[in-house]
Design a protein that fits this description.
Structural class of chain B: mainly alpha
Number of helices of chain B: 15
Mean pLDDT of chain A: 89
Largest interface: A-B, 53 and 59 residues
CATH topology of the largest domain in chain A: Rossmann fold
Protein name (chain A): BMP family ABC transporter substrate-binding protein
Strand order of the largest sheet of chain A: 12-10-9-8-6-7-15
Distance between the termini of chain A: 55 Å
InterPro entries (chain A): ABC-Purine-Binding (IPR052910), PnrA-like (IPR003760), TAT_signal (IPR006311)
Strand content of chain B: under 5%
Keywords (chain A): Signal
Number of domains of chain A: 2
Number of strands of chain A: 15
Radius of gyration of chain B: 24 Å
Low-confidence stretches of chain B: none
Mean pLDDT of chain B: 89
Pfam families (chain A): Bmp
Oligomer: heterodimer
Low-confidence stretches of chain A: 1-6, 14-31
CATH class of the largest domain in chain A: Alpha Beta
Structural class of chain A: alpha/beta
Chain lengths: ~375, ~375
């Protein structure tokens, strides 16, 4: 029976293709423009979060002349992504592939970069290693914690109680850094501010995110922020409870017309446009590109109704400071178990901070 | 006298007509093909409403799924795990159980394979010994997991659909617990994973292709399980149990044992899929194992009408739709959900088409009454 099934399916497909071929000239791989950028997303492009931030930049890139952009969303972190990227190279003639999810890198981007040495691969997390990885691969990553620090500053001056609630996905360094930066930002303007954190355990658990938000509001937090893939649920729930909100990844301002203060946003556009320009000019792309406000890779969402005037002023000043390289982690800081974890001034890109596995004193919550 | 004439006439008729078996086969081919065509037509209306060209759409399905050697390999690679997880649903279905826990068995299989590899790799045990041990560990883990749901079904009367689904969530949580806890590779800071097995221990591609060996394993298992379920006394006993468990018990068939064995086979298939995800795809166990293959496998097996051999072409069809989905997104600017809508449509139309079996006149054997 199955022998027949194979042939019957091929038959339909052949038939349809035949009809199509006679009706239309078959589309052949298009590489008309000198730069074809393939972008892969792990989730939907309109998730109000991580993927949307990239999609906004992709849209801006489409406006650049001589650049073609091809996009694929909802690509899981399995060998499916290898095939999606390869398909972009083989069928669409992509000469720059942007892999935007953490788990795409190893082994998929690395293996494919070895297989296609003439195609440039760039991945949105600081994972590229000079010694091990191919030269046509690389990393780009803005340090979003700087924008969370600005969030903290604005929250400190917009919240009557100084109690900030943080819904976090997993206790990994990049998340912990954002939590600690919110605290340091808030304490820079309100020394008794606190951050209460709840870890949901995974990147996208909408029900648990709503529960966590409610629990934080019940515990007295009057500003809510988060680090999950799509902040939509958290922001909407908090707005519904009548508390103020701070955004994450992309703009959530439309979700909270009453309580939105500001949000930590990536500005991938800067990076993508510079990559496209480098390729068009025949220049070598940087292999490892990290930055923050100093390199115009971050922005804070335009202030919403929840931001006080003092908060706007202080947050603008904080951004100006970060552009000059003002450090966030400085002095002597203890974690919330009493151990000294910072005893000098660290540059905002110090590798020590990349391995962060502590929550500062003033953060209520536990990573274990 | 009149009767005899009619009878001899009908015998002559039957001799010239195709046999019942051929008619059944024709029915089993014509109905699904018609269902596929109907789904394509309905979907074309959907596309026209959105002002998109159906011709472009189906051309791209061909281009992205079968059109070139690259596209076909893309299809086969995506089909590979689906064959195994499809079998994980199809085999218990033959014994009358709706086991939807393939996802959990796959995840636990992958975790077990990665976990047992850690001491073996660090002790320098060669790959040809390590890999079989990993595969066995994965199949055992998956087999015991789904086997447990089967055991609960027979000996404790727990609904297997619910228990296997809930066990999947437990399996995923267990995997996260170990991967983020004692099995975590300290180097995997932002994506908790087990220690990588290393390139020397990775299963490569089938020679001459870019598709990993999981495809071959799926093809072989589909054939073996098809023979087991249709050509052996074990398979017969299982089908009798599936038809009527009480009657099977009354006949003295070891129903409990049959159920546990069938469910263990199913779990082993899904566990093996997990092994290939670790040994051929990721090189380690982490949250990427939860990719939904177990759940897609349910759909695959359903469309294959729980026939193990038919799981192969259906899995390939799904692989092709998924492979082409990317091209459709890129060329037509349509969202990823487009292909899911088509899959859902095929599913509904095919289920509806079930009612046509035995009702299409020209596919039925001629009866004597027809002539009178």
């Amino acid at each position: 029976m199955s022998r027949f099934e194979i042939s019957r399916r091929s038959l339909i497909k052949t038939g349809l293709a035949g009809i199509a071929a006679s009706a239309l000239p078959m589309r052949i791989a298009t590489a008309a423009s000198p730069v074809t950028v393939g972008i892969v997303y792990v989730g939907p492009r309109d998730d109000f979060g991580w993927n949307q931030a990239h999609a906004v930049a992709a849209k801006a890139l489409k406006g650049v002349s001589a650049v073609t952009v091809v996009e694929e969303e909802n690509v899981p972190e399995t060998d499916a992504v290898a095939k999606s990227m390869e398909s972009m190279i083989n069928l669409d003639g992509a000469n720059l592939v942007l892999a935007t999810s953490f788990g795409y890198y190893n082994p998929f981007v690395v293996d494919l970069a070895k297989k296609y040495p003439k195609v440039e691969f760039r991945h949105a997390a600081p994972l590229w290693s000079k010694d091990k990885d191919p030269k046509n691969a690389g990393s780009y990553f803005p340090y979003l914690n700087q924008a969370h620090y600005v969030n903290g500053v604005a929250a400190g001056l917009s919240s009557p109680s100084g109690k900030i609630g943080f819904v976090a996905a997993k206790p990994i360094p990049s998340v912990l850094s954002n939590i600690n930066s919110v605290l340091l930002g808030a304490r820079s303007v309100k020394p008794d501010a606190t951050v209460r954190v709840i870890f949901t355990g995974d990147w996208s658990l909408p029900v648990r995110e709503a529960e966590a938000t409610n629990a934080l509001v019940d515990a007295g937090c009057d500003v809510i922020t988060c680090h999950v893939d799509s902040p939509k649920v958290v922001i909407q729930t908090a707005e519904g409870r009548g508390v103020k909100t701070l955004g994450h990844n992309a703009s959530q301002a439309p979700l909270a017309p009453k309580g939105f203060i500001t949000g930590a946003e990536y500005k991938w556009e800067t990076i993508y446009k510079s990559f496209a320009a480098d390729i068009a000019a025949g220049k070598t792309l940087p292999n490892f590109l990290v930055g923050g406000f100093d390199k115009d890779m971050l922005q804070n969402t335009a202030y919403g109704a929840g931001a006080s005037d003092a908060a706007k002023k202080a947050a603008d000043a904080a951004i100006a400071g970060l552009k000059k390289g003002d450090p966030i982690y400085k002095g002597t800081l203890k974690d919330n178990k009493g151990n000294v974890v910072v005893n000098k001034t660290y540059d905002n890109y110090d590798p020590y901070l990349d391995g962060m596995n502590w929550l500062l004193e003033g953060v209520q919550g536990s990573i274990t | 006298m009149a009767d005899m004439t009619v009878q001899s006439l009908s015998i002559a008729q039957i001799k010239r007509r195709p046999s019942v078996g051929t008619l059944r086969l024709a029915e089993a081919i014509i109905i699904p093909v018609a269902a596929l065509i109907v789904s394509a037509l309905i979907f074309s209306i959907f596309l026209l409403v959105l002002d998109k060209s159906p011709i472009t759409f189906f051309t791209l399905i061909w281009t992205g799924g079968f059109g070139s050697s690259f596209s076909f390999q893309n299809t086969l690679q995506r089909a590979a795990p689906l064959i195994l997880t499809g079998l994980a649903f199809a085999v218990p279905a033959r014994i009358g159980l709706t086991m939807i826990g393939g996802e959990g068995a796959l995840v636990l299989g992958g975790l077990s394979a990665a976990a047992i590899a850690i001491p073996l790799v660090s002790a320098g045990v060669p790959a040809f010994l390590t890999l079989p041990v990993m595969a066995i560990a994965a199949m055992l883990a998956g087999g015991l997991w789904i086997g447990f749901a089967g055991w609960l079904r027979y000996y404790r009367g727990v609904n297997e659909t619910i228990s296997s689904l809930l066990l999947s969530y437990i399996a995923i949580a267990t995997m996260n617990f170990f991967v983020e806890g004692i099995l975590r590779d300290p180097a995997s800071a932002n994506k908790p994973s087990t220690m990588p097995i290393g390139d020397a221990y990775r299963i490569g591609a089938i020679p001459g292709t870019q598709v990993h060996w999981g495809l071959a394993a799926g093809l072989i298992l589909a054939v073996v399980l098809h023979i087991l379920m249709t050509r052996t006394t074990f398979g017969f006993a299982a089908r009798v149990t599936g038809g009527n468990a009480r009657a099977a018990l009354a006949q003295g068939l070891p129903v409990g044992k049959l159920i546990v064995i069938c469910t263990m086979i199913a779990g082993a298939c899904a566990g093996l899929a997990g092994f290939y995800e670790v040994a051929a795809v990721h090189g380690q166990a982490n949250a990427s194992l939860v990719a939904g293959y177990g759940f897609t496998g349910i759909l695959v097996a359903f469309l294959a009408r729980q026939v193990p051999l038919a799981v192969i072409p259906v899995a390939i069809l799904f692989g092709a739709l998924n492979a082409a989905g990317g091209v459709i997104q890129r060329r037509m600017g349509m969202p990823d959900a487009t292909v899911l809508v088509l899959q859902g449509l095929i599913f509904v139309v095919l289920l509806t088409s079930e009612t046509f079996y035995g009702r299409i006149p020209f596919l039925q054997p001629k009866r004597v009454e027809d002539r009178t």
